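User: Could you go from structure to sequence for me? I need the amino acid at each position, not a summary. Structure tokens:
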């Protein structure tokens, strides 16, 4: 019986830390790194590029764990009222331990990047590749850290409380993951990866705004875009962002970044995206958010397929 109780307690602790770190969401960041690498090389990365991609994915995973834990630390007082079931306000994880975990995961993210530099600098690179092609990875990581500081920390810009700028900051960090992946493949300026960067920004910004509309009742005291300009105006802004997402999908085919004939692959994503307008007009925010996510996943799958064909 004692063994069973210990096992249950251990499982509960793992679940609490998983909730704090939002591990399920973080896996999308890992996927984004591999997506950027695959798009850059035009296939499954191999040998050293596979190793650097794994290290970049590890860096992103640890970085996102740190960011999410930090978010809950700063939202502790709000979550006592709005989300009392979360690990910190419920007391299942102490603030002290959460802060230690935040530091450990951020250091682990840095360590993954440092080890990646060592790997690249000591490996025999293929013809046409240089170690300088990896250096933008440092810049991208530093930019993500800058976004984190100015999103969460009181001594930064506190973009989290600035409405639309906060939504855009989160979306830029999402898009950077793909470029970080292409940099892992020593192709930081790959145009296909940068196309995905802009697709991710507009899709995610639209969805972030809709989610803020959904959360208006629980966001009393927060300065989200929906709280500042009202639900209907926020929904209109989200629709404008989805139109920009549509343009960012089609433009790479029109300019030859992706083969023009492959545009047929994104038709399901485009059709799904166009149906979002009806949900927004009717105020069906949850359905609109779900449809935006579905369209984005269809789009990424299509662009990935186009890259490897």
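Assistant: Here is the amino acid at each position, in order:
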């Amino acid at each position: 019986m004692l063994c069973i109780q210990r096992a249950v307690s251990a499982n509960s602790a793992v679940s609490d830390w998983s909730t704090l770190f939002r591990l399920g969401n973080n896996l999308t960041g890992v996927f984004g790194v591999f997506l950027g690498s695959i798009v850059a090389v035009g296939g499954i990365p191999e040998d050293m590029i596979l190793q650097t991609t794994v290290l970049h994915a590890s860096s992103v995973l640890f970085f996102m764990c740190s960011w999410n834990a930090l978010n809950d630390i700063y939202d502790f007082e709000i979550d006592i009222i709005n989300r009392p079931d979360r690990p910190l306000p419920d007391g299942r994880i102490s603030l002290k331990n959460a802060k230690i975990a935040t530091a450990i995961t951020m250091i682990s993210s840095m360590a993954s990047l440092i080890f990646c530099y060592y790997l690249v600098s000591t490996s025999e690179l293929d013809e046409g590749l240089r170690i300088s092609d990896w250096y933008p990875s440092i810049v991208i990581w530093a930019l993500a850290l800058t976004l984190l500081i100015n999103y969460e920390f009181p001594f930064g810009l506190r973009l989290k409380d600035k409405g639309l700028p906060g939504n855009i900051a989160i979306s830029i960090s999402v898009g950077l993951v793909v470029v970080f992946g292409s940099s892992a493949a020593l192709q930081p300026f790959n145009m296909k990866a940068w196309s995905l960067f802009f697709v991710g920004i507009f899709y995610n910004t639209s969805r972030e705004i809709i989610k803020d509309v959904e959360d208006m009742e629980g966001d009393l005291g927060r300065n989200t875009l929906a709280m500042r300009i009202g639900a209907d105006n926020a929904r209109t802004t989200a629709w404008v962002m989805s139109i920009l997402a549509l343009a960012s999908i089609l433009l790479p085919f029109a300019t030859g970044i992706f083969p023009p004939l492959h545009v047929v692959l994104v038709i399901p994503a485009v059709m799904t995206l166009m149906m979002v307008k009806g949900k927004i007009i009717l105020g069906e925010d949850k359905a609109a958010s779900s449809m935006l996510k579905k369209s984005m996943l269809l789009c990424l799958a299509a662009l990935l397929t186009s890259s490897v064909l």
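One structural detail worth keeping in mind: The chain has two domains: 21-189, 191-309.
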